Amino acid sequence: MDEITNHFNSLHPDDALVHWDSVKVDYLKGGNSGPMIDIKKLIDIIDTQMATSLKTLLTILSRHQGSTETYSSIDTQIYIKNVESARSVYKNAFGSGLFLWEPEYAAPRQ
After folding, report:
1. Quick check: 84 and 100 in contact, CB under 8 A?
2. For position 70, what pLDDT does the model report?
3. What is the SS3 assignment for 70?
4. Do 79 and 60 meet the contact criterion of CB atoms below 8 Å apart?
5. Which terminus, N or C, of the chain has the lesser number of Cβ atoms within 10 Å?
6. Residues 47, 58: contact at Cβ < 8 Å?
7. Would you say 60 and 76 are in contact if contact means Cβ atoms under 8 Å apart?
8. pLDDT at site 31
9. Which has the closest alpha carbon to 72: 59, 57, 56, 55?
10. What DSSP state is assigned to residue 17?
11. Residue 42 host element (H or E)
12. Is 47 exposed, middle or buried (0-12, 13-18, 19+ CB in 10 A)?
């Protein structure tokens, strides 16, 4: 019996387990019968890291994380305001830069 036990203990995780029908094989379990990690928390962390790496909001990525529709719509409105603000700053900077570099394209001054 010790020889059989030692043989089974020496198997690697990717080895095929061949046995007779009288042998009952079961998965190893931890101290509690629940999962080892909380999958929802893991998915929330991955979603947050994805939004951070893409530099956008979770609402834009359709990852609400349990937030309400009102919160999502407010979040989207804030995002749109930020985009409009950045566009106006860029437009003003680019417009004045265009007038400085290319005077023939500038509007005539009075």
Report:
1. no
2. 73
3. helix
4. yes
5. C
6. yes
7. yes
8. 61
9. 59
10. -
11. helix 39-54
12. middle
Single-letter amino acid, residue 33:
S
pTM of the model: 0.37
Record the tokens describing residue 34, joined without a space. 């629940």
Whole-angstrom distance, CA of residue 74 vs CA of residue 86 = 18
Rounded CA gap, 33 and 27, in Å? Answer: 11
18 backbone φψ class: left, alpha, beta (φ>0; ψ -120 to 50): beta
Amino acid at position 51, single letter: A
Element (DSSP H or E) covering residue 109: none
Structure tokens at 64: 């609400």
Q: How far is CA 48 from CA 17, 39, 67, in A?
A: 40, 14, 14
Mean pLDDT of successive 10-residue stretches along the chain, which has 110 residues:
84 80 75 70 85 78 68 79 86 68 57
Q: What is the pLDDT of residue 65?
A: 60
Distance CA 37, CA 43 (A): 11
Asked whether the beta carbons of 46 and 67 are under 8 A apart, the reply is: no
